[in-house]
Amino acid sequence: MTERKKLTLKDIAKELGISISTASRALKEHPDIADDTIKMVKDFAEKHHYVPNILAVNFRKNRTYNIGLIVPELVHHFFSTVISGAIDGAKKLGYNVLVSQSNDLLADETTACRTMLASSVDGLLISISNETLEADHLKEFLEEGKPVVQFDKITDHLNTPKVIVDDFEGAYQAVKHLIDQGYKKIAHIRGRREVKNANERALGYQKALEDHQMEQSSDWIKDCVHINEQEGYDFCEELLKSQNPPDAIFCITDLVALGVLKYLKEKQIAVPQEVGVVGFSNWKLAEIVNPGLSSVDQHGYEMGERSIVKLIQLIKDHNIENEEVIEIKTKLIIRGSSLKS
Amino acid sequence: MTERKKLTLKDIAKELGISISTASRALKEHPDIADDTIKMVKDFAEKHHYVPNILAVNFRKNRTYNIGLIVPELVHHFFSTVISGAIDGAKKLGYNVLVSQSNDLLADETTACRTMLASSVDGLLISISNETLEADHLKEFLEEGKPVVQFDKITDHLNTPKVIVDDFEGAYQAVKHLIDQGYKKIAHIRGRREVKNANERALGYQKALEDHQMEQSSDWIKDCVHINEQEGYDFCEELLKSQNPPDAIFCITDLVALGVLKYLKEKQIAVPQEVGVVGFSNWKLAEIVNPGLSSVDQHGYEMGERSIVKLIQLIKDHNIENEEVIEIKTKLIIRGSSLKS
DNA sequence: CTGTTAGCGCCTTCAA
DNA sequence: TTGAAGGCGCTAACAG
């Protein structure tokens, strides 16, 4: 395979008997340059497949058109949907996306940030790990004048734009739906107290109960740590074996709801007749299970797209002071797990 | 936020009263440089947080430490698993990964390739789209001396290393398992004839039947086009309503198997007693459905990791002539959908 | 052991 | 309307 040497401006200038700067300007149709010259240079460039050396351009301009994107997990329906939206949005605006994952570990997140910074991305899009409480590793970006946009899992310790799902409202609607369906004792298997999304959802749950004068009980609120199927299963068992068992369960996420459904199926407790279940995120699995799992869709693709558009705007404006909060509306998808009628 | 100006080698040299090249060499502990000088420079650099301008280095060295990765779909359990492995592998070797998706369209794939080439990745990792029959857009990489590694969905029109799953053997084992379980009439819902993986799996299916003197029928082979749930459902119906219905179905992928399971459940046909089902890919859904879906695991994470390691090795060796084929072993995961006993 | 010099490819004043 | 020259930050060949 012959590796053809790349044509440079210098080559063009020499061939055409003009100076390098004229060639450079002609290619970008600088108004000072004569039309004839422009045509000549462009024709020549086209004919010989001239491609500017992007490395030189980037070096000169001190930017890369690359954006860093860090998520807790890559193999994850919601996050991969966000990534998909971010990549498509970036492509439209002429940017590339460098993807990395933190595995929900602060150490990995910090490493990823350093790598991104070292490879000189123009900006960062991040959904922080569960362990991230402080944000010093993120401040480094701002100190270098590189904008950061947070999405979904965010921290208030960093003043950047934030693109979030309206967790409160999503939870509120989910619980209201259960109330409308006639469930009387609604439990909530919630996420960690340090995680903002989890708190918002819990608040939405509580507000819905209050607004509709529903019975409340601290026994009906269970705190997840790992937020997995097993916890859903175990908490469901605890709830149903308690003195005052609930007749509906609102879960922090679909995976937890799956554990709940599994327990109910094993014990032959009818869903949705005896117990109603609603999840959060609307993963692929929600439509696959039987009965279908009602869930709150977070519009991940849109979130990714909006986030990247915002970030690129900040990059172009050299703006690292923006703190706008963009809220993506949720949508309750009702399926068999909570639909009595 | 004060944007502190970056320290350069020039600054260090001036401060320390030495030349730029001495500073440069000292930082990389060049043997010619006196230990004292090295120490002095390193101390100074550390104290003042010197970070080399990566853009300048890349420009000078004509490489980016960025690798392009193109998959048909991002929101896809198998591909996101591969990406995860590739990213982790790249990280260990000091490379970043630029991700893009083709949506299984040749046009999008070509665009993605151009963008990657323009942003000057050091090499490309790709799983081609269903539409990709020729490979001219990929040859451009090789022509520029940038190695390419193909994985999973590959084309033989491009001479590069290929990392593939042993589709033939995976299919063979799946079908052999059905035979071992006592199924007598095994059907296959297969993928497109233009797609190599699909053909390999079909051959594995056929060979297993031959080796065990099983009944064969062209009526038992159904060709998918979209490879989705609906096709699985429809073909299952066709198969079971035929003159000579099969008692087991080996599906090209889990999604198709899901459609099959749905049909069987609706018609109250017992799985695995009356009909056995095996899928391919071992997606998350395979363990979630009830009964669990037996499936052939493709070890996506390992595939991503092996692919990227191979690619980086070629980049380092400036080697674009390699055509090694790396085969990842599959593993049959047996679940309720095919386990009679 | 260290400094000088030249240059990577491009852009951008400044001068003609 | 064009050209010459300088420089972005770093590396490396060549001299001392």
Automatic annotation (TrEMBL), chains A, B:
Task: Please provide, alphabetically and separated by semicolons, the GO molecular function terms listed in this UniProt record.
Answer: DNA-binding transcription factor activity; transcription cis-regulatory region binding
Tell me where on the tree of life, at the top rank, the source sits. Bacteria
Domain (HTH lacI-type) spans 7-61
Pfam families per record:
LacI, Peripla_BP_1
TM annotation in the entry: none
Q: Mind telling me what this protein is named?
A: LacI family transcriptional regulator
Q: Which CDD domains match?
A: HTH_LacI, PBP1_LacI_sugar_binding-like
Q: Which regions form coiled coils?
A: none
Cross-referenced PROSITE patterns, in alphabetical order? HTH_LACI_2 (PS50932)
Keyword annotations of the record: DNA-binding, Transcription, Transcription regulation
Listed InterPro entries:
HTH_LacI (IPR000843), Peripla_BP/Lac1_sug-bd_dom (IPR001761)
